Amino acid sequence: MEGERPLDDELQRLREERLRKLEERLTGTPGGVIEIADDAFQTNLQEHPALVVDVWAEWCGPCRMVAPVVEDLARDFAGRVTFGKCNVDENPRIAASFSITAIPTLLFFANGMLVDRVVGALPKEAVKARVMRAFGTG
């Protein structure tokens, strides 16, 4: 079937483009969300004086509701507050060290210290209010 090759090439190109965009979001492009992992967590705390960490899991429905809220707020607060995602299944030490028993959980760190915590899927405006209170920013 000669005619299927261009379609396969187009699908591959679309997959690569989507993967590139996803990697940009995860690597902390301006206004993006950074990946938080057990082995680099202390470095993240030092490098980002205002940090919100979304602790989530792939299988968690409410976590999928929070993800776009986190991404929107990362853009809204770009340059002032850093937002990160921590997959609890891949990073059990972070979850254990903050006694996380329910997800999604948002952890708010100011200058390396935990200053607030939100458990559950809250609407964007509620999370935004907590960010502003935690970091004194608008």
Write the layout of secondary structure elements.
Layout: H1 4-26, E1 33-35, H2 41-47, E2 50-56, H3 61-76, E3 82-87, H4 92-97, E4 105-110, E5 113-119, H5 124-135
Parallel strand pairs: 1-3, 2-3
Antiparallel strand pairs: 2-4, 4-5
Question: Distance between termini?
Answer: 58 Å
Rg, alpha carbons: 17 Å
**Average pLDDT, all residues:** 88
How much of the residues is beta strand, in percent?
15-25%
Report the total helices: 5
By DSSP, the count of extended strands is: 5
Largest sheet: 5 strands, mixed
Tell me, what's the shape?
Answer: globular
The assigned structural class equals alpha/beta
Report strand order across the widest sheet.
1-3-2-4-5
Helix/strand order, N-terminal first: HEHEHEHEEH
Low-confidence parts: none
Relevant terms:
5 helices; globular; 138 residues; 46% helix; alpha/beta; single chain
Describe the protein in words.
This protein is an alpha/beta fold and 138 residues long. 46% of the residues lie in helices and 21% in strands. It is built from five helices and five strands. The protein has helices at 4-26, 41-47, 61-76, 92-97, 124-135; strands at 33-35, 50-56, 82-87, 105-110, 113-119. The protein has a five-stranded mixed sheet with strand order 1-3-2-4-5. A hairpin with a 2-residue loop joins strand 4 (105-110) and strand 5. The longest helix is centred in the first third of the chain and has 23 residues, at 4-26. It is globular, with a radius of gyration of 17 Å. The chain starts with a helix and ends with a helix. The mean pLDDT is 88.
Short structural description:
By secondary structure, the chain is an alpha/beta fold. Helix content is 46%, strand content 21%.
